[in-house]
Amino acid sequence: MEDRLLDKIAEPFNLNLPEYASMEEMIDKLLPVVGRFGQGDLTEEDSPVYTVDWVKMSDKLGYTVVSLHTFKTSGEIRIANDGAMDAMSFDVLNAKRIIIGQSIHRDAFMYELAFMDNDFLIFKRHGNEANIKQKYLFFCREAIGTRLTWNEALEKMVDKYRNNEFPWTLVLIILAIVVGVLVYLR
Question: Whole-model pTM?
Fold first, then answer.
């Protein structure tokens, strides 16, 4: 009996996300829910984009390379693919837009900031979605990205902000009423 009662109490906190076929599909569904919790200014020098080492997440089958990206304020992205070093360029156009590519004018694409906090970074490619093969660039903080798969990382992002949705004000009011009634009846 106690187990069933505890299960019923814990049920609202145990949100099970549906299975998604691709990272793009899952991000499409989650961004409207968690997007408002993100920070959003690429122009600030203390922005998480510059202060965090990011692991690029991928949903390609068999892809196991840890691709660590470090964005430098100089416009360089240092990339370590399982330790092998590479580099790309970027140019911040404004608080929400960035160009990323081999150089700013060669093999480069414009992205818009879809979500950013200290643990997760999502860029959405600018343009007609029908013409775009890879719609998102999804990055996680190194501590998250090196130990989780893309879907586990997105679930962690949802878990991080799930408690912000819970109506704590209502709980506090009810708790205050219960305490008040108990004190009055004493």
Answer: 0.77
